Amino acid sequence: MAEAYIVEAVRTPVGRRGGGLSAVHPADLGAHALRALMDRTGVDPAAVEDVVLGCLDAVGPQAGDIARTSWLAAGLPEEVPGVTVDRQCGSGQQAVHFAAQAVLSGTQDLVVAGGVQNMSQIPIAYAARRATEPLGLAQGPFAGSRGWRERYGDRPVDQFHGAELIAHKWGITRGRMEEFALASHRRAVRAADEGRFDREIAPYGGMTADEGPRRDTTLERMAALEPVVSGGRLTAALSSQISDGAAVLLLAGERAVRDHGLTPRARIHHLSVRGEDPIRMLTAPIPATAYALKRAGMTLDDIDLVEINEAFASVVLAWIHETGADPGRVNVNGGAISLGHPLGASGARLMTTLLYELERTGGRYGLQVMCEGGGQANVTIIERL
């Protein structure tokens, strides 16, 4: 049976909106991660057969196939193509899936996958509206679709609305979510202080660490924030941060490993993607995880570490409740609430962190799952080698 191996993984620090990476052109941000990846592997870049990067909001500086332009901006060979994918917040993870599928099929042997996003450079009015206001059907991307309206009516299609629905359905209080968010920051700060991210980060300029984790946050400060949606439970503190960053991985088949003298660090054990209710939107990780484990012939007891994207605190808490996962194995180094969520890059950032943490702890299997726009979720299970 063919195998797809992860040979190397690297990421930039994750910057806050308006922070240390905000002025960096997205192509240069992606280029930095790509150069670091190729330098670390020592592989002839001309041997790479494709570059697959995730990116959302492909407008302005992120338009024009950012995967291709990032590779070229890195000064890497023109004969290597690139393609940009959009599966919403899971785009970077989907890029890894596409690369792994190419390798598993035997049609390609050496593929770069990952994602890039500079959210600071999304037009301000657009970004602010998306970050703070529920989008009704009339304002959203489905406006004018008769088929959508006939199927789903005029219900709001918005992540904040979905996160609120989840909090109410599972009876998750604001206080419980604030405790979870505080734990995310504390885990991220501890991980940074212990140097757990040092090997996976390729510093950019003088920026060597993630800007998101807050050492001084408290439950009292969180409690003072106004809800994003009037009368709701979710606040900015319980949501993922608007961020900038890039992350990339090199995937290889057995022939490439042999021909280039590579040492695989992990094996793709399983990959799948499932869909669910697009209005509630963010609960797809629950059935997607069950589906993936069944297909893989595993249970969560077989999984040493889990990375689930902290789009909102309610998403992760509902997933833990339904799956029965051990919270002590979930997002052990913090998540998007503390580390940030550079949309198109997050899937690859989570995969990179998962790989390094499996190696640090000696764990065997890691599971990654992300909620995504449209009510979707990717699941990847990797085996450390």
Count of discrete alpha- or pi-helical segments spanning 4 or more residues = 13
Shape: globular
Look at the structure and give the mean pLDDT.
Answer: 94
Order of helices and strands: EEHEHEHEHHHHHEHEHEHHHEE
Which ranges are low-confidence, i.e. pLDDT below 50, for 5 or more consecutive residues? 124-134
User: How far is it from the N-terminal to the C-terminal residue, by CA?
Assistant: 17 Å
Could you describe the 3D structure shown?
The active site is at 89 (acyl-thioester intermediate), 341 (proton acceptor), 371 (proton acceptor). By secondary structure, the chain is an alpha/beta fold. It is 37% helix and 18% strand. It contains 13 helices and ten strands. Strands 1, 2, 3, 4, 5, 6, 7, 8, 9 and 10 form a ten-stranded mixed β-sheet that branches. Helix 2 links the parallel strand 3 and strand 4 (82-85). Helix 1 (26-41) crosses helix 2 (66-73), helix 3 (91-105) crosses helix 13 and helix 10 (285-296) packs across helix 11 (313-323).
Topology record:
Layout: E1 5-11, E2 15-16, H1 26-41, E3 50-54, H2 66-73, E4 82-85, H3 91-105, E5 110-118, H4 124-132, H5 146-152, H6 159-169, H7 174-193, H8 219-223, E6 243-252, H9 254-260, E7 266-275, H10 285-296, E8 305-308, H11 313-323, H12 336-339, H13 343-361, E9 365-372, E10 376-384
Parallel strand pairs: 3-4, 3-5, 8-9
Antiparallel strand pairs: 1-6, 1-7, 2-6, 5-6, 7-10, 9-10
Helix pairs in contact: 1-2, 3-13, 6-11, 10-11
List keywords for this structure.
single chain; 385 residues; alpha/beta; ten-stranded mixed sheet; 10 strands; Acetyl-CoA C-acetyltransferase; Thiolase-like; EC 2.3.1.9; Thiolase; acyltransferase
